[in-house]
From TrEMBL:
Keyword set includes Nuclease: yes
Enzyme class, broadest EC rank: hydrolase
Protein name as catalogued: pre-crRNA processing endonuclease
Family in the record: Belongs to the CRISPR-associated protein Cas5 family. Subtype I-C/Dvulg subfamily.
Amino acid sequence: MAYGIKLHVWGDNACFTRPEMKVERVSYDAMTPSSARGILEAIHWKPAIRWVIDRIHVLNEIRFENIRRNEIENKIPVSAIKNAISGKSASLSQVVTEERQQRATLMLKNPAYIIEAHFEMTQAAGAEDSPEKHYNIFLRRARQGQCFHRPYLGCREFAAQFALIEPDSKLPPSYYAGSGDIDLGWMLHDIDYGDRMIPRFFRATMRDGVIQVPVFGERA
C-alpha cells in the first residue's frame, strides 16, 4: 500500500529566498522542496516519520512583485542567550527603532502549487507507530484544516492556505501544461542535518508545470 499524499497549497504571496542573496530577498521561481517539507510538517510531523517530497506542481503563472519591507538589522547572539541561561549577565533586548532597516524583496505573486510527497519511518519509531497510523492522522488533519502552526510560503508573513487532494480527485490544471521543459536553474533541495548542516542543491527543471524532485543526497 502506498502512503503518498497530494496537497494543494496557495497564497497571496511567497518568497522562497535564494541563499546567495545576502542582503536583499529574492525568491526562487517556485517552491523549494525544503519549503514543501515545512508545510507538511506544520500539518503533521512526529520523530517517527520523515517527509520526502516527490514532485511540485506549479499551477499559476510565475509572476514577481517588488516591495520594500522593514526588517531588524541584527539577531540576538547565541552566546548572549547561553550566558543568560547559565546565569551570567547578558542583554537580550533589541530596540526596533534603532536597528530597523528597509530592504527590498522580490517575491512571487499569487502562487499555487500541488505538493506530492510520501513519508518514511525513522529509527525513532516505536511499537505504537505504523505507516497506516501516521498516514490516517495526516489525512484527517489535512481534511479538517488542522495544523500545529500556520504553514507559510517561504516567509512566515506569507501564510499558506491548503486543501487535501483526495486520491481519486482530478488535479487542478497548471498554467504551464504542455509548455515542455523550463530550466529553473540551481535550487536549494534541503539542509543536510546529518552532515554539518550543509545545504544541498539540485538542477530544477519544470516539465509541463511539474518539478521532479530527486532523492535527497543523489548527485545533481
